[in-house]
Amino acid sequence: MQEVIRFGWPEGVTPQATEMRHLWTWLAIASLVVGVIVWGLTAWTVIFHRKRGEGELPRQFQYSLPVEIVSVVLPTIIVAAIFGYTVLVQNDVDKSIAKPDVKVDVTAFQWNWEFDYPENPTGKKISTLGTSETIPILVLPTDKSIEFTITSTDVIHSFFVPEFLFKRDVFPDPEKNDTDNTFVIDKIERQGAFVGRCAELCGSYHSVMNFEVRALSPDLYAKYLQKRTETNPVSGVPNTAGEALASLGCGELCSPTAVTTYPFKTERTHRSASQRSPS
Fold first, then answer.
1. Cα 121 to Cα 163: distance, rounded to the nearest angstrom
2. Over 90: is that where the pLDDT of 121 sits?
3. Which of 190, 157, 20 has the alpha carbon at shortest distance from 94?
4. CA distance 68 to 57
5. Are residues 20 and 111 in the same domain?
6. pLDDT reading at 61 higher than 90
7. DSSP letter assigned to residue 254
8. Residue-by-residue DSSP string for 28-59
9. Which of 43, 63, 116, 200 is deepest in the core (most CB within 10 A)?
10. Residue 273 phi, psi (nearest 5)
11. What domain range is 24 assigned to?
12. Is 26 or 140 the better-scoring residue by pLDDT?
């Protein structure tokens, strides 16, 4: 039954996603109810109130006060209810939290993603950068509030994870463009891998500008951050996201490469001010 009343929406993994799915469900139901009423009245009028003969007109209702009241008041009530419910959901989706558990900086560029953890428990810089050969994996904890700060280094992109049931356009220079470039999710409710996409047409390789969210339990997430600061004995540099995940030994959940999408060979380049090695 739950799958039926989702009306095609994916199953969300955050509280905000659940709220938006409920909004979508009730909007769809309200639309169907209004549609059935309109179709019914139309059919009733066509069948029972057609012109019967020469010079004979069907009964006229243009001066019927009850009909006019219903035709004005009922739509007003419906629109007001939809508007009020939408505002409530929107305010919760757009809310801010004074002290989120996790902060992530998201940088979009043609045609890939970079993820930074500016305030992580290790006190060291941790960053993940996608390339033409590597789908970037954004590792996040479950059951923790997460604040995203998003920006673009070139054109407008859009940060979209279907299971979050939410997307946010990513603008270059948010202050200059007068846009709010932060948003918060209360928590990710279960572990898993979820595809992320750019949902704004941004150029030649827009369709392959993907990333992956990997949600781990808080314990595994803490171990992942620690592994990111440790030096890889082979390369002699700190572990990449894939190497850190693989070292956790938790099966497919800790796959070193993306499992929801795959790279497509392009000539993508990183256009941010800081050029760093892929990780």
1. 27
2. no
3. 20
4. 20
5. no
6. no
7. G
8. HHHHHHHHHHHHHHHHHHHHHSS--BTTBPPP
9. 200
10. -65, -30
11. 2-52+59-93
12. 140
First CA to last CA distance, the chain: 43
Q: Which tokens sit at 170?
A: 């990513």
Instruction: Encode pLDDT of 202-225 as tens digits.
Output: 988 898 899 999 999 999 999 999
Task: Tell me, yes or no, if the pTM score tops 0.85.
Answer: no
Split into its structural domains, the chain has a count of: 2
Residue 119 maps to which CATH number? 2.60.40.420
Structure tokens at 32: 């169907």
Separation of alpha carbons 228 and 70, rounded Å:
64
The bridge status of strand 146-152 relative to strand 102-109 is parallel
Indicate if 127 and 208 belong to the same structural domain.
yes
Answer whether 20's CB lies under 8 Å from 89's CB.
yes
Task: Spell out the SS3 assignment of 189-212.
Answer: CCCEEEEEEECCCCCCCHHHCEEE
Assigned token pair, 157: 């992109």
**DSSP label at residue 165:** T
Pair 150, 213 in one domain: yes
Q: Is residue 279 situated within a structural domain?
A: no
Q: How far apart (Å, rounded) are the C-alpha atoms in residues 95 and 88?
A: 11
Number of CB atoms found within 10 A of residue 179's CB: 16
